[in-house]
What does this fold into?
Amino acid sequence: MDNFREAIKKGDRNAYKSLPAKGYKNGLTGLLIKTGTYVNPEYSFADCDTDTVIVSVQERKTLPGCRISLKLATKDADGSYHDNGIRIEYGITTGSKKFVANNSAWAQHAIAGDKVLETSLKRDANDSVCTMWSTLAKNMATGRDEHTPMSVYDQRFESLRGKPGISEENITFSHHLTHYVYQDMADKSPQEVEALVYQTCQAGM
It folds into this structure.
């Protein structure tokens, strides 16, 4: 379990390859990467005990073993996590090599490979991404109306280059968004800018 505990602490999605998710290369790791999903370390854990693996909820029957309980989230460019309301939990009994769903419908969906979890995660990820960009656009429009030079935002985005989780595409898009807010939408209020960017983002997903 130490490898899972370490992965949760470090935010390393590559450690979950042994957790079954049918139809994905590298198990749950593959599913998380495909849907742009992360594990929120603050609300996730891995532990072992004498009554950890749930065999029957109705009969309150448990077995000794270990569980990996992961709170899934999206992640902003600044590294902050946004809970998407999904917890997935796997269990493994002592002496076994097979992980099972530990009273977790989401883990059952992943093991079955029915795409229910993937669909839900993609929808949440898209909404979080669009909310992030539209909020950024609104803040820039507020700065524009308060006469903050466009160069201030350009410099701010350039300072993020090379930071963990920041891609070249993020930097490029941020610059485009700045020019869009300051020039193409110069006559729009911050609230109008926010709504337009959100709608455009959703339409492009």
Q: What stands out?
A: Residues 124-204 form one domain. The chain has a mean pLDDT of 90.
